[in-house]
Amino acid sequence: MTSPFPCFDAPGRFWRGNLHTHSTLSDGKLDKAEVCRRYKAEGYDFLALTDHFVGAFGYPIADTLPYRDNSFTTILGAELHSGAMENGELWHILAVGLPADFAPSNTPHFLPVADQETGPELAVRAVAAGAYVAIAHPQWSGMTLNDARSLAGIAHAVETYNHGCAMGCDRPDGFHTLDLLLSEGHRLNLCATDDAHFTEPDHFGGWVMVKAQENTPEALLAALKAGHYYSTQGPELRGIEIGPRAVTVHSSAVASIILQGQGSAARAVHGESLTTGEIALDRFANSPWLRVSVIDRAGKRAWSNPFWR
């Protein structure tokens, strides 16, 4: 068997981080120092503080360098906005790894205005500036498939679980969007985030585990772009191997191990305290991609990035 999921074979160790967070620099409740303190105290290794990049807040890219130390680091970023989606609402685009001097868009507030960049144009600029870019909370945004397609060749990932959207409006999901894009041939990863504002229980609920040799912004960002990570609400993915007839998944103790593919292709194994599960590939003959989910007894999930066969 081989492991085509690079995060398990890449050198280094796993680092826990949140990629989507807000402070009083935009519409969050806590100042940036307290946000960083809380994530560090909760056991996170890194944080991206991604305040809303709009004129009403002064187009902030939070300076979190003072909160880095030997056990905790930060990656500069922002939630970018410009132009209207098909439903007439403003684009939301997550950009992690922006330079501190990233040029502002023409986005005075949270409503589209004339003479703005489109969302895809802004995303292209963020990628060119070195950022890892994700299509933010598509279910919350009411994003159409056409909207998602316009970013599919630009973004690195779809934000498939957003804890703030789960707690605030029960619209946390991006898996339907991701799977449709994958089935059209778009090679995208996924990510789980908090989108924490600390105005409700929207924090410490979804994160990424990034495999890198160092807990530095540069190493973490390179690993994110390479797909060397998985996403989780708590369970650990420890290895995924693909053989000619079956996929074998290794994890922390879970109750369900699920393999998903194109269309309705899916199989699961269920049990008590499963740490290894084997899933036959007979239902996946026509699926060019696969991904894995695990669910523990508390209903918490972890998700692999997709693998292309």
The CATH topology assignment of the largest domain is TIM Barrel
Strand coverage percent: 25-35%
Mean pLDDT, as a whole number? 97
The CATH superfamily of the largest domain is identified as: Metal-dependent hydrolases
Anisotropy-based shape: globular
Question: Biggest β-sheet: count, sense, barrel?
Answer: 16 strands, mixed
Order of helices and strands: HEHEEEEHEHHEHHEEHEEEEEEE
CATH class of the largest domain: Alpha Beta
Number of distinct helices: 8
Keywords:
16 strands, 309 residues, 32% strand, 2 domains, Immunoglobulin-like, alpha/beta, TIM Barrel, globular, 16-stranded mixed sheet
Polypeptide structure, described:
There is one protein chain. This protein has 309 residues and is of the alpha/beta class. It has two domains: 6-231, TIM Barrel (Alpha-Beta Barrel), CATH 3.20.20.140; 237-308, Immunoglobulin-like, CATH 2.60.40. Helix content is 20%, strand content 32%. The protein is built from eight helices and 16 strands. The chain has a 16-stranded mixed beta sheet that branches. The protein starts with 5 loop residues before the first helix and ends with a strand. The model has no long low-confidence stretch (mean pLDDT 97).
